[in-house]
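Example record

The entry below shows one chain as it appears in the dataset: sequence first, then structure tokens.
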Amino acid sequence: DPRAGPDVVVSARNEIESLFADLSEDDRNLLKSRLFDEESYEEIAEKLKLQPANVRQRISRLLKKIRIRSE
């Protein structure tokens, strides 16, 4: 919500940091590239010298892991 106050933003940021804390640095960087930097699977794959399908699969697994932890 663009009208969210600072407390809501801080709370959301803390929750995201908590969920990311248990991930490896490589996994955090992978999700950061996709979710925050909005890089395509192809861009990430090229950067990491992987196939785009492998990147999609890794991101999918990481997001599932985060969803399970947040429940």
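Notes for this example: Helices lie at 6-21, 25-36, 41-48, 52-70. The chain is about 75% helix and 0% strand.
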